[in-house]
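Request: Show me your protein:
***
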Amino acid sequence: MQPAGRDMPPGMLGCYLSHIAVYRLMQDAAAPVALVLEDDARLDPRFVPTLREGLRSLDFDYCLLDCHPANPQGHVYYDRADGVNIGPGLTAYATHAPPTGSHAYLITREAAAQRALHAFPIRRVLDVYSELPYRPRFRVLVSPPGAGVSRDSHHSLTEERDHRTGGAMALLRAVPGYYPLRNLLDPRLWRLQREVPRLVRRGVLPPHGDWRPLPPGRRIRG
């Protein structure tokens, strides 16, 4: 029998094990929550006051500062009617399903203990939760996100991602309001929004809530 996790690329396996090691370290710590950052993560300056003052709410298991907008089952929606304030100008919204992305997130001590308990055998990459015997509570910082990806992180060892772009694109991304405007004009987001009634009828989305599709992609920060 092939050992669990053997089919993972070394980078994904190492990433998985490093996060589980953090969760185990948390069990000896008194802090009720931890900020986990991978080496390509860059905090948004607007998130820094929250680190200094402490979180205003721990109504989550995971709070993703930035993430991919989908999981293997499809696009992820967040509920504009279910947001909690975790810090100055920062609202974390509940999602209908787990997004993917583990490069910048908050995790409570209880959630870390539960995840470490079910860490082995390794069946899926760290940020796919479908095979866990429980359902974690997720929230996401949408606008503004709490983090982005370093522009120096040209290539990821754990996924097919390359951030190298031309100088003109780098200048465009630096324009204030670029990302909100990009999302506003993204036709795919409009199409996904029109899918909400159908998804509610199918039972994919709960009938209550103000469901919106998570905006695409990670922001690249200097």
